[in-house]
Amino acid sequence: MPLPLPRVLIDCDPGLDDVVAIAVASAHTSVVGITAVAGNAPLHHTERNARIACDLFGLDTVAVHSGAERPLVAPPRDATHVHGKTGLDGPPQREPSRPPDSRDAIEFLVESIRSEEGLWLIPTGPLTNVALAIRAARDLPGRLAGISFMGGSTSHGNVTATAEYNVWADPEAAAAVLAHGHETLIRMCGLNLTHQVRADPAFVGRLLTSSSEAAQFSGALIHHYRNYHAILVGDPTAGCPLHDPCAVLAVTHPDLFAFERRHVAVECSGSHTRGMTVVDGRGYEDPKARNVSVAMAIDADAALTLISAALTA
Ligand code: RIB
Ligand code: CA
Predict the structure, then answer these.
(1) Domain of 287: which CATH number?
(2) How far, in Å, from the CA of 6 to the mean position of ligand 1?
(3) Residue range of the domain that includes 275
(4) Does residue 224 carry a catalytic annotation?
């Protein structure tokens, strides 16, 4: 008897790899709803891109709600230099099939989590919406099966030497969410993990030559992302990390991962370290202080096989 699919809420900032995360969620979860946050691109783009991703991966009846158009405290700082002006550079532009469902993602998150216990919340962008929802309804963390987010790092950053984009874009929100790690299970897929899951030219080529429209669209997105990454690292053959789908796989296929319980804090004031996830690796602090289940390793081949299959569905 197959286990029921996990029921999930996705909070995202599509974003090339957010689209890949939505594809994996469509293949392996029951998506209750999607909320968009400003991040990789301004909110009016990320919200529209989330609807486009839903059209591509059979989620055209799943509600998409737009949320915060700026971080809690930090100024809005997008990543359009990576993801493109609209947030979906690479494939020919396309129009979503339907209008947005609402502009009140926070209310949608609160209502959804209060009406159904045991949902997974999967943020793949800045944690602004999640922090605002918990601020509005402090009972939310205890009602969730968990929060599985892409963000942070146990090692280096990407926007700075120490800070990963999702946490760097809104450190105050990330700090607020991680403070609830004793009320709900928080799984963190940081750069130390996501850089183990890389799409190489062969991976991209298989998508581009697929007969599936969704695969071709995704292949063009990842091709754009890989080109950016190859130039960044000065290696034309380099594979690009597929960050956001890892947060979904941490819910749907946890056996592919190695997790360690750690205390994780977010630096909000350091001149060189603002946005850094400070992951305590000493191992002798009070175990009760450990608020996050940090993903340290993944079976990358298995993950890439699942991702490729989801994109080609
Ligand atoms: O640092 C990687 C993260 O920042 C991913 O979620 C990517 O989509 C961007 O939002
Ligand atoms: Ca993202």
Answers:
(1) 3.90.245.10
(2) 23
(3) 7-312
(4) no
